Each structure stands twice: as structure tokens, then as C-alpha cells.
């Protein structure tokens, strides 16, 4: 009898098939002597739509709500049904004795495989492959230590509970809001609190009143002394008269050094990356959206096999990974990383390292390199950037702390206190890995050293300058900072309940590390969020939605409560039935609350353009990367793109331009006011020699590897006869 291996994606299936010597290609599967390997395309099976339970649900009516299926049905996703039937046929082969689940090692990966088995009606015994990377070595070791399928039944229960609960709450609340207010309004236990977080930030910005503050600096050769209040220690005051009086008092006077403190300090390397931390850094450094970063990471994990599983919420590794660290360092010791890797290659690699903690690793450890040898030339520019972040963070973690000497000088001028700080680097430590980059954590204004100073010294010839500034409002969210707020939403909670805040911290905030990027994208796609530059704004639709949606659904506490219970189900400490009974009651009460609501919804983005399908006036909406007209009739759903963000850069300010219009009349428009017809743009680019694709460049570079350089010189030298 053979074992059937079910992978989540074709690329992973091919890797597993190669290791298991499955050389025969079938329709949707690979086969060898002992194993048959097949795959999903992500999810092949999902929860059925409402109309599959009753034809009346095809029409959205308030009187048909709430929808409460006694037993949830499963349906094959139409776009991937061919692959589902290929998998099903393998499951029911008479020579298949057991199933090995080899989907991603996590809650959602478990759901992918179990729903396929459930829909196919499989009764065959199940085993589980649980690995964090898809290198040949990891696959071999994983198959040598297959786990019992029954051990992961609670994980499947938790995943199914999450899916069914989101169906009950999301479907009913969305339909109730849409029917009640005759507008396409969607809500959910993660996306609605996320909107509420953005709304709270906008409210803070709106209420903010800037204040002017003042300071005083004293300058002498080689040193700058800053005034500080003797009571509070603050270097700023909001009293302009006071700072002017102090300046008047100290002008022309000398400073006396009263104290010099020298302290030796250490800074430890930052922890390893989890997905959220990586997404935040990638946005800050390169402007990559969270979704883009996840997609790039997935390619580095699945295709290149040089990084470990991306959807992790841990920044630590477990002790069993420590013996593999030397091989991982060796694998990435190429190109720009050779020098840094060489310094740590000989170790020691110990389980006492700060980034090793078994208790802080659940399903997956932090993102680190695999033992797979890396070929940087095979990566795209975007892949190189993400790989660079991960490798430098990994190598830095293996370096010793950075050490420096900090000097603080305190001086007195006519009874007023002035201070200055300096720093002297003693050991670069982990900062050596980032030696070519600007360190964002370093105090850029802090001088590296002072001229010779000692207690009691008098400093003469000082010049004084009053400094002035304004308090700044809270910053608007961008995709990176919104991701961080979703991870740590306790500051935005209504109740400030310490227990709920603790729960949020333990469960990882709103959504999961794997779903947050999708939630943000969905909010843009639903026209609830829009971008102006890099900043995120609520749309009018979102503001009205937050007024109409039940209060409970806006609170981060709800999702914290869910995630805590789902974790308990996954650990076998709570019954699936208990949780689902609570959810059904909640969905019932939520629907009734919306039904009894007294608010109104008004489209304030109506245009005079009529829908070519139904004739109703269309709405002008701003998508994440496009501006479009959308029919106001939710059942019609017709859309037309007015303008989209292009990759073409403005020749004046170098920002990406919008491409407006249709056909030959298309025009590039930039926020700075620059305009250029598409035809003129093409002509200009042609003259500049642009238009070469990345593929063309790669072909050219590959060609150069096989051909000698300086061909003209080579031919000339070939004709010379030189004595040996």
C-alpha cells in the first residue's frame, strides 16, 4: 500500500515529490514506489454560500435573517474544482492506505487539508508532516518523524470554529447592514475594530492643538550645552518670556563644569524577525505593503527555499534549532554577507543565547535562513531586499553586544543648569553587521566625543541661541504603522480592561500574523480606507459605517476573546460545541441590534455619470491604486476605472504618476501638477532609451557570463606572438 501526501501548493508538492523519488507525472499528482504526492492550490474547499442552504437567500432580505445553518455544508471552490477532483480520485484509490497531511504547519494549513478530506468523504488513517522549511533536509527529517494525525484534530477544530464563526457573524451582520441601509456595507470582528483604530487616530489628530515650546543652547568650541529645568529636567518650556529672561541672565557669562559622569553601556542586538516585524521594517525601508512583503517571503520560502516559514508570530528559536545554526550561517555566507558570517561561523552557538526560548515558540520559530545554499543572482531586486533584512538580523543576533562609553557633562551658568552628552564607541559588536547602513536607533545629534573636560573647568566665550518648535499631532497611519497597531491594539481599547489587554497581548492582537495584510487590503478594496501619498484616511463610507455598526463589533476585545478561546480549543482545553453555541447566540443578538437601529446612510460621493448597465447614478471611489466609478446598486456592481497609479515617474518630482482616460486620450498626471499625454510620454521614453524590461536585462547579464569581455582587445591580443 502507498501513502498519499497532500501539499498546499504545487511548488511544495514538487519538492516533496523529488525527495520521495516520485518521478511519474500524473494529472494533478506525482507518483513513486511508496508515495503519491498531490496538492491544493491554497484552499480547494470552503464553507458553502447562504443560497446553498435555501434558494431564498439569493435575495438579500432582512426578514430572512439571521441565517443559522444547523450543520455547515462544504462546497468545492469553482475556480479550482479540477484540482479538487484530481485529489479526490487519489484519496479513493484502493492502493492508498493512509493520508499524510503536508500542508503549511499552522491552523489555516490544517483547515486546507481537513476540508478536502471531509468533502471527499475519506475515512483513511491520517499522519501529519510538520516542518518549518521546505529544504530537502527538512523534508527528509520530517518524513522520518511523522506525527499522529489525531494529535492535530484540536487544531482543525479551532480552525473550523474560526471559519464558521466568521461566517455566522460576518454574513449576518453584513447582510443586515446592507438591507437596513440599502448600501454595500460589510463588517467583521477584525476589519471593523481596525477601522475603529484608524477613526480614533483621526479624532486625536482633529482635536490636537499645537503649542510652541522654547529651549536655549550655549555654544563653545567643540561643545553644545543645552539648558534644562532644575525641577523637571525638561529641556523645553512653553513660557517664551522665561526663556528670554534666562538668555538675558546668562549672556556674557562663563560656564563652570560641576559634574562629569562616565558610564559604560551595552546595547544588545534586536530580536529575530517574525512576520509582522518584517512587514513593518520592509514598509519603513522600501515602501513594500504588508501583502507584498508576505508574497515575497512566500517565494523565498517556497521557490528559493532560503528562508523558513514566513507566517510566524515568534521572534525566538527553540533549542532544537541551535545545532543547525552553523549550517545556516555557512549557507548564507556569500557575497555581501561573507565577512559578517565568517566572524560567527566558529561559534559558539549555545542554548543560552537571548534569542533561544522554547516557551516563546508555539507552532513556528522566528524567520531565519535555511541550510540551503543561496544564489543571490537568481533573486529579483525585491527578493534581495527582504532576504537582506532577514540575513542581517539573523547574523546580528549571533554577534556580541555593542559597547560604548557615554559621557554626561553638567555645567552651571548663573545658577541655570546646562547639560551635554557624548558617546565613544568601544566595541562595534552586532552593529558591525550594519556598518554600511545608518542606524535608526542611534541618537544622530549626540556628538561622538568632547574636547578635554574636567570638573571645575570654566568655559568662556559662549554664544547663546533660543530654539523654538511646535508640538506635533499624532502621525496618521501608514500600512506599516497600522499593522503594528493591529498587533498591539490595547492602547485603542474603550474599556482599558487590564485582563482584556493582557489577552490581546497573549493572542497577538487583531487577526493573526497570516491574515492582517489581507484585512488591510480588503479595507482598501471595500472603499473603507484610502491612501493619500503613504498616509491612510477613512472614507466617508467608513465613518458612516462606524456610526451604524453595533458598538461591540468595533472593540478589539471581541477578537481577543475569540482568539483566546480558539487557542484553548487548539490546546484541547475547550470543546468546539461550547464555543459555537456562544457564537450562534452572539450572531442572533447582533442581527437584532442592527435591525432595530435608527441611523441613516447617505452617499456623498454620487456623480452625474449613469451606470451603463442599470442606469443609476454611479459613485466615485478611491481605491488603493486606482480611482473608479462604482454603481450605487449593490446588486448591479458595475465598475469603471477612471485612473490608476502607474509605474511611470514624474520627470519633475519623481513620484509615481496617475494614468487617466481611455485609449489614445490617456494622460499621465502627477500630484505636483505635471501632465503629459501617453503618446508624448512614449516618445520621450523612446528617446531616453527606456523600455528595457527586467527580463531583457537578465538575459543580457546571463549572456555576459558566457562571453569574454573586451572582445576587441581579445582579438588584437590573439594575433600577437609573445615569447614565453
UniProtKB/TrEMBL annotation:
<feature type="binding site">
    <location>
        <position position="8"/>
    </location>
    <ligand>
        <name>Mg(2+)</name>
    </ligand>
</feature>
<keyword id="KW-0460">Magnesium</keyword>
<dbReference type="InterPro" id="IPR003602">
    <property type="entry name" value="Topo_IA_DNA-bd_dom"/>
</dbReference>
<keyword id="KW-0479">Metal-binding</keyword>
<feature type="site" description="Interaction with DNA">
    <location>
        <position position="311"/>
    </location>
</feature>
<feature type="site" description="Interaction with DNA">
    <location>
        <position position="167"/>
    </location>
</feature>
<dbReference type="InterPro" id="IPR013826">
    <property type="entry name" value="Topo_IA_cen_sub3"/>
</dbReference>
<dbReference type="InterPro" id="IPR000380">
    <property type="entry name" value="Topo_IA"/>
</dbReference>
<dbReference type="Pfam" id="PF01131">
    <property type="entry name" value="Topoisom_bac"/>
</dbReference>
<dbReference type="Pfam" id="PF01751">
    <property type="entry name" value="Toprim"/>
</dbReference>
<dbReference type="InterPro" id="IPR005738">
    <property type="entry name" value="TopoIII"/>
</dbReference>
<dbReference type="InterPro" id="IPR034144">
    <property type="entry name" value="TOPRIM_TopoIII"/>
</dbReference>
<comment type="function">
    <text>Releases the supercoiling and torsional tension of DNA, which is introduced during the DNA replication and transcription, by transiently cleaving and rejoining one strand of the DNA duplex. Introduces a single-strand break via transesterification at a target site in duplex DNA. The scissile phosphodiester is attacked by the catalytic tyrosine of the enzyme, resulting in the formation of a DNA-(5'-phosphotyrosyl)-enzyme intermediate and the expulsion of a 3'-OH DNA strand. The free DNA strand then undergoes passage around the unbroken strand, thus removing DNA supercoils.</text>
</comment>
<dbReference type="InterPro" id="IPR006171">
    <property type="entry name" value="TOPRIM_dom"/>
</dbReference>
<feature type="domain" description="Toprim">
    <location>
        <begin position="2"/>
        <end position="135"/>
    </location>
</feature>
<feature type="region of interest" description="Interaction with DNA">
    <location>
        <begin position="186"/>
        <end position="191"/>
    </location>
</feature>
<feature type="binding site">
    <location>
        <position position="104"/>
    </location>
    <ligand>
        <name>Mg(2+)</name>
    </ligand>
</feature>
<dbReference type="InterPro" id="IPR023405">
    <property type="entry name" value="Topo_IA_core_domain"/>
</dbReference>
<keyword id="KW-0799">Topoisomerase</keyword>
<protein>
    <recommendedName>
        <fullName>DNA topoisomerase 3</fullName>
        <ecNumber>5.6.2.1</ecNumber>
    </recommendedName>
</protein>
<dbReference type="InterPro" id="IPR013825">
    <property type="entry name" value="Topo_IA_cen_sub2"/>
</dbReference>
<feature type="active site" description="O-(5'-phospho-DNA)-tyrosine intermediate">
    <location>
        <position position="309"/>
    </location>
</feature>
<dbReference type="InterPro" id="IPR013497">
    <property type="entry name" value="Topo_IA_cen"/>
</dbReference>
<comment type="similarity">
    <text>Belongs to the type IA topoisomerase family.</text>
</comment>
<dbReference type="InterPro" id="IPR023406">
    <property type="entry name" value="Topo_IA_AS"/>
</dbReference>
<feature type="site" description="Interaction with DNA">
    <location>
        <position position="60"/>
    </location>
</feature>
<keyword id="KW-0238">DNA-binding</keyword>
<dbReference type="InterPro" id="IPR003601">
    <property type="entry name" value="Topo_IA_2"/>
</dbReference>
<feature type="domain" description="Topo IA-type catalytic">
    <location>
        <begin position="152"/>
        <end position="591"/>
    </location>
</feature>
<feature type="site" description="Interaction with DNA">
    <location>
        <position position="175"/>
    </location>
</feature>
<keyword id="KW-0413">Isomerase</keyword>
<dbReference type="InterPro" id="IPR013824">
    <property type="entry name" value="Topo_IA_cen_sub1"/>
</dbReference>
